[in-house]
């Protein structure tokens, strides 16, 4: 109940005040202390805030929030009410702000948060996988039906010597013997930013109910199908598969995840179930965003593999071993690695 | 008890005001950021981004020039490509980080705002009143890619030569740009996905001194008003009076004092208008607050006294 309603206050100056002003005088110290802490934290001077203040912050926030509730019931002082509203709001931003540091977040993310979100995509991953397989098939069939399609499907950068009618030796030369090549680092960085762009696009396009995501997946895997047809014609199927599997198992997995993430959002918006569209979209969006943060990490790995490992390991069995190992690693991490929820993890608890 | 009577509005409320219920159950008034403020914040961020980008690029180019010069002087051939290549890698990574991490890192900080947002006095918050999490910030910023960067790049690359592509890109861009105009909370597509919204950062104004002095001055205690004289006004007038006392402009104080004196039937000519108003304010507030504690509220002068 409102303090200050009893006449025990000894100070005659205070007791001469209105009750609501007495209420304010008695609590002002707390308000100002919270104000000082919040101001310091807003300015990013977290280190200069004493530990005692940091520990007191949640308690102070609740105290001031209850002061606001009481003040609304007993006080007509607009300045005090306005100040309290602003203060509680600022403290709310701090107390309920992004709590974890980047390191904490990363630990929770790698230690289960990421794989849990990936498993949460479930059906969407299956759809994206089916669509990608279909894309490869479509690419193959189109080119097999009419080789002119090859020029339309495969962007110029891949169609240097790798065109229909190229000799087996020319094709083979694109797969092997590049280990002396310069510029691997720049190549890897370029691959990474390019692929990350495509993945983020696949994710973001999920916003349009997932349809463009599917189209993007088909378009990108059709290139793969067309090139597979080309190398198959030259009898280099296994060599090509090995060449692409070095980074491809990681990269295609990442694209699969981003496509699944995009679909997840699109599906949640198209079929929200009993939730509102906004609630469904934001729940799906948060899970998909976590997957996407991981996709960026996978693409860094893929770019390193593509830029370095593929050039340095110049034989088919070695390449297959690397690709197979990466695939097994990702599958194990996403689908077999399921630690129990750590109780204090900020990201998973809401 | 306070719920029975509508809270008197302390200021004119716009259609951007929302009530947010914190997990403690306290209702907090929030103001959704205006579209102008958000557009301004975005422009500011682009100016900053562009500046950083140009500075990084120039620094790396001059570094590359220096490296080339050094190598030319000492004539060792092997390291040159490696060193230059390293600089190119750094530049690519910096470009990537500027595009995706700039907004992320700043919005994850305690201010929940990029530099542009901060200068515009706005920030992001979770729409449900709960915690703003890293996933929300990631989601809302990844979507910026299709809202902004992609169509702009597309428009630039399509050019005027291919009208259909150009039109499609422009329509796409316009759709996302106008998205905040078609919903109540001014959400952009990224906000919808992430469950966030952009609100005005609370003003930092420190509390002004109380309008009721700790020691009532002798002059103001000279004025005592009767119950009937105080019953004329309600909470709205009280808070208007408070504002006028805080603003402290002589002309306004005198005219308000004359109006009140006329309304309650007193001689409008008093030696000290401000003392008169302060006394009236203190006594009116005491009366209204006493009524509040009894569950009787009087919103304004038109409301009947519930007693």
TrEMBL record, chain A:
<feature type="transmembrane region" description="Helical">
    <location>
        <begin position="229"/>
        <end position="246"/>
    </location>
</feature>
<keyword id="KW-0812">Transmembrane</keyword>
<feature type="transmembrane region" description="Helical">
    <location>
        <begin position="321"/>
        <end position="340"/>
    </location>
</feature>
<keyword id="KW-0472">Membrane</keyword>
<feature type="transmembrane region" description="Helical">
    <location>
        <begin position="291"/>
        <end position="309"/>
    </location>
</feature>
<keyword id="KW-1133">Transmembrane helix</keyword>
<feature type="transmembrane region" description="Helical">
    <location>
        <begin position="252"/>
        <end position="270"/>
    </location>
</feature>
<protein>
    <submittedName>
        <fullName>Putative membrane protein SpoIIM required for sporulation</fullName>
    </submittedName>
</protein>
<feature type="transmembrane region" description="Helical">
    <location>
        <begin position="121"/>
        <end position="143"/>
    </location>
</feature>
<dbReference type="InterPro" id="IPR002798">
    <property type="entry name" value="SpoIIM-like"/>
</dbReference>
<dbReference type="Pfam" id="PF01944">
    <property type="entry name" value="SpoIIM"/>
</dbReference>
<feature type="transmembrane region" description="Helical">
    <location>
        <begin position="196"/>
        <end position="217"/>
    </location>
</feature>
Automatic annotation (TrEMBL), chain B:
<dbReference type="Pfam" id="PF06271">
    <property type="entry name" value="RDD"/>
</dbReference>
<keyword id="KW-0812">Transmembrane</keyword>
<dbReference type="InterPro" id="IPR010432">
    <property type="entry name" value="RDD"/>
</dbReference>
<feature type="transmembrane region" description="Helical">
    <location>
        <begin position="83"/>
        <end position="102"/>
    </location>
</feature>
<feature type="transmembrane region" description="Helical">
    <location>
        <begin position="46"/>
        <end position="71"/>
    </location>
</feature>
<keyword id="KW-0472">Membrane</keyword>
<keyword id="KW-1133">Transmembrane helix</keyword>
<feature type="domain" description="RDD">
    <location>
        <begin position="32"/>
        <end position="195"/>
    </location>
</feature>
<dbReference type="GO" id="GO:0016020">
    <property type="term" value="C:membrane"/>
</dbReference>
<protein>
    <submittedName>
        <fullName>Putative RDD family membrane protein YckC</fullName>
    </submittedName>
</protein>
């Amino acid at each position: 109940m409102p303090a200050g309603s009893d006449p025990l206050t000894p100070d005659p100056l205070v007791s001469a005040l209105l009750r609501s002003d007495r209420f304010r005088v008695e609590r002002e110290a707390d308000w100002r202390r919270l104000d000082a802490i919040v101001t310091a934290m807003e300015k990013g001077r977290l280190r200069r805030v004493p530990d005692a203040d940091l520990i007191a912050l949640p308690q102070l926030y609740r105290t001031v929030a209850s002061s606001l509730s009481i003040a609304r019931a007993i006080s007509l002082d607009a300045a005090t009410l306005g100040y309290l509203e602003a203060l509680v709001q600022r403290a709310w931003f701090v107390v309920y702000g992004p709590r974890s540091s980047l390191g904490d977040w990363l630990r929770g993310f790698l230690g289960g948060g990421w794989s849990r979100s990936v498993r949460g995509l479930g059906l969407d991953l299956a759809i994206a996988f089916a669509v990608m397989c279909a894309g490869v098939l479509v690419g193959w069939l189109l080119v097999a039906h009419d080789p002119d399609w090859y020029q339309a499907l495969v962007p110029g950068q891949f169609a240097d010597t790798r065109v229909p009618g190229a000799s087996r030796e020319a094709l083979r030369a694109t797969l092997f013997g590049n280990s002396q090549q310069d510029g691997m680092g720049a190549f890897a960085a370029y691959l990474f930013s390019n692929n990350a762009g495509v993945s983020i696009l696949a994710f973001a396009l999920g916003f349009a109910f997932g349809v463009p995501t599917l189209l993007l997946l088909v378009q990108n895997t059709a290139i793969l199908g067309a090139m597979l047809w080309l190398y198959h014609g030259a009898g280099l199927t296994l060599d090509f598969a090995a060449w692409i599997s070095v980074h491809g198992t990681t990269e295609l997995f990442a694209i699969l995840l981003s496509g699944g993430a995009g679909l997840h959002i699109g599906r949640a918006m198209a079929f929200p179930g009993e939730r509102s569209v906004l609630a469904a979209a934001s729940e799906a969006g948060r899970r998909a965003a976590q997957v996407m943060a991981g996709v960026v990490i996978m693409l860094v790995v893929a770019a390193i593999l593509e830029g370095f490992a593929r050039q340095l390991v110049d034989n088919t069995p070695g390449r297959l071993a690397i690709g197979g190992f990466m695939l097994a690693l990702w599958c194990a991490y996403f689908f077999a690695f399921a630690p129990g929820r750590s109780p204090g993890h900020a990201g998973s608890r809401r | 008890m306070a719920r029975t009577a509508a809270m008197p509005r302390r200021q004119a409320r716009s259609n951007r005001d929302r009530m947010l219920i914190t997990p403690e159950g306290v209702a907090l008034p929030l103001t959704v950021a205006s579209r102008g403020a958000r557009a301004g914040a975005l422009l500011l961020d682009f100016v900053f981004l562009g500046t950083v980008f140009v500075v990084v690029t120039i620094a790396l180019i001059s570094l590359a020039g220096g490296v080339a010069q050094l190598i030319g002087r000492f004539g060792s051939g092997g390291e040159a490509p490696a060193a230059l290549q390293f600089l190119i890698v750094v530049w690519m990574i910096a470009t990537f980080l500027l595009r995706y991490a700039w907004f992320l890192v700043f919005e994850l900080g305690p201010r929940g705002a990029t530099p542009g947002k901060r200068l515009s006095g706005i920030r992001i918050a979770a729409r449900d009143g709960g915690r703003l999490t890293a996933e929300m910030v990631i989601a809302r910023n990844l979507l910026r890619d299709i809202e902004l960067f992609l169509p702009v790049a597309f428009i630039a690359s399509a050019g005027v030569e291919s009208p259909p592509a150009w039109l499609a890109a422009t329509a796409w861009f316009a759709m996302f740009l106008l998205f905040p105009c078609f919903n109540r909370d001014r959400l952009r597509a990224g906000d919808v996905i992430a469950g966030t919204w952009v609100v005005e950062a609370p003003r930092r104004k420190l509390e002004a001194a109380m309008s009721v002095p700790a020691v009532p001055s002798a002059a103001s205690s000279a004025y005592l008003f009767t119950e009937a004289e105080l019953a004329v006004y309600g909470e709205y007038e009280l808070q208007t009076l408070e504002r006028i006392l805080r603003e402290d402009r002589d002309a306004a104080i005198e005219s308000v004092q004359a109006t009140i004196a006329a309304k309650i039937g007193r001689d409008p000519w008093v030696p000290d208008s401000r003392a008169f108003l302060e006394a009236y304010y203190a006594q009116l507030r005491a009366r209204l607050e006493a009524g509040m504690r009894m569950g009787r509220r009087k919103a304004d002068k038109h409301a009947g006294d519930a007693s």
